[in-house]
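Ticket #4471: complex job returned nothing on first submit. Input attached below:
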Amino acid sequence: MRVDQPRYKTSDEVDFVIVGSGAAGGILAKELSTNGFRVVVLEQGPYLTEADFNHNEIEILTQDKLTNHPKLQPNTFRKTPDEKAKPQRALVYGRCVGGTSVHFTANFWRFHEIDFIERSKVGPVAGTGLMDWPITYADLEPYYTKVEWEIGVSGLAGASPFDPPRSKPYPMPPLPVKSSGVIFERAARKLGWHPFPAPMAILSQARAGRSACINCGFCLSFGCEVGAKSSSLATAIRMAEKTGRCEIRPNSYVHRIETDANGRAAGAVYFDEKRNTHLQKAKAVVVCANGAETPRLLLLSANKQFPNGLANSSGIVGKYLMLNSGGVVTGQFEHPLNDYKGFAVSRVLHDFYELDPQKVGFYGGGGLDARFDFTPINFAFGGLPPGTPRWGKDFKAALAYDFNRTMEIFCHGTSLPVENNSFSLDPDLKDAWGLPALRLTYKDHPDDLKLGNWMFARAHELFEAAGAQKKWSFPAGEQQFAVHLLGSCRMGNDPKTSVINADHRTHDVKNLFLCDGSSLVTSGRGQPTMTIEALAFRAADRITALAKRGEISA
Amino acid sequence: MNELNRRNFLLRAGTGFSAACFAANWPALLSAATHAHSAAKAATPPKFEFFTPDEAAEIEAITARIIPTDGSPGAREAGVVYFIDRGLTTFGADDQKTYRGGLPELQARVSEVFPDATKFSALTPDQQDEVLHTFDEPAKPSQTAANSGQRAIRPRPGAQNFFETLRQHTIAGFLIDPDYGGNHDGAGWKVIGREREHMFQAPFGYYDKDYPGWQPIAKEAEKK
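Support reply: We reran it on our side without changes. The output follows.
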């Protein structure tokens, strides 16, 4: 529930203006306001609450009630920089208070040690900018624990032999197992693999004034009506509001970071709901607008002093984008699973997290999960076996038989950082506010596609061992649609090959910080939000320390 | 689970649920259920807002071939034509042109295949199918995991042709949560076996009902 917030004047120079209220922005708002700072969060979307969430597939899936709207915010796509990009919807992200964390699946794996030091371990990969992180798993471990306890993650410590070390168990037990999870667990064990209860940012027990999951079945893509999904909206944003020092200002579309004569950030310029322009002044700016909108905002902020865009002396703002490789293999079973009940995922396995390139012939690794994430309508559009008639008696019979007998294995994997893969400003297409539209340039690295197909083969083995009546998948193909938006303003020690340092401070502008999926150096194995949130907790500590030492103000 | 049990379950599930949160959410859940209940009881169907009665008869006849009535309810019983009619003045207003152009196109195809026929709805079911098969699209180019619709879980906007648009709308109207203007009386969910409750408890299905609880893998088994 919304509590009274302070109302800062735009002319009032607050300590921090945060752009975006999602996974990272929510946590930074909570931490910085708790640490005594005066904070304004500018969110481009509306402030919806649990009372606004429902099970209307039309509103959610075709009208984009919670997400970026393709008419107001059109995109273009091309595979390589020598092509002219064509208008097509290229990405989806949460556009409301809480951001994408409102509608996500809530898979909350930690990254493993390897994700931070992969370049050192496997060496360079041709055609990529693969590099190590400036921090290690050990640096981030306390913050993963913080996410689990403060935001709320259900899981079972020690259940996976591949898990990295942890300082504390999960704060609550795993969610109940689904039929898909039992099928997955039994078959995986037959094969000698190590399935474990999925760590999920969904409450298995009532906690901190929030309800436990009621297994309503409208989870992925939908907002949680009872606050059981640990979105920023249900957690960090409310904690930030309770400090009395944080204002959440929705319907505020930031389109420029203002800089002063000394090249420092002076505040954020935004359109309000009526498209009037305002400048919110601040001592420092923290951009958490996601891996697409953060680089776009830096590029939109180009001026005489920063002709290539803000914080872009390296020229790599928007580049080395990673979307995560993978896809699903679908299986059909003899008896009803009724997997439409409940959250999406109840079992995961990490046996293939770290593959040996010498053995498999490509770089990468990943995880498998057992899931059913279809709502009834999108099952009819995308869940039936290939070759099923598209209408008529046999179509109806297939729907009736398959809906309760179907499960999926989602194969999650790495994407390599390729310089050409990027978000940039389209030179022609404009959004509804007259600003350059986002242009996605993306061509999967060949190893990413090889990994996808290799993982699909493992999922087929699992379905075989499980005695599936039918199983099917499609070959890994080049992606043209982005959901995970990673690496586009990456972290590093070298200002030539990275945009921010290990404190999330941009190399070029001392009082400008970036924290979201764009900060990631490698893609992990397909579940980035847990790491984005851990980074946000850590960034808040680093930024607080800098501010207290007087190293942010001029 | 009946109304009272559901309320108890919610209370139990939300022992830590704040009073304010509860007040804000419970009415929404309750009113949705009440709405569905009264809609199911409505004796007279609503009036058409976009279609003329003749057009509605043609559209309904097509929806009844897309999801026919056989041993179980079809698009007709689910009131899909009303959902589409309402949709074309609200969420689907962009598709009005497709229907305006599509109805004469349908008439033309009826006349072409059955020169003596006056309208689609007057044909036999087999004849109707014959006409609709003229809309069949050639096989799609290579499908991949990246474009199979698993990530982009939304109806594809590229439903340019009339029949494909109508097919998508029919499916949506048959399977949407009954609280949102289609799937009358939960007919579509009965067909696919989806229960109407707003909340569920484990065990959920056949394979998890006898699950003994999480067991770590035995060390000996591991060594083999």
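The radius of gyration of chain B is 23 Å. Closing as resolved unless it happens again.
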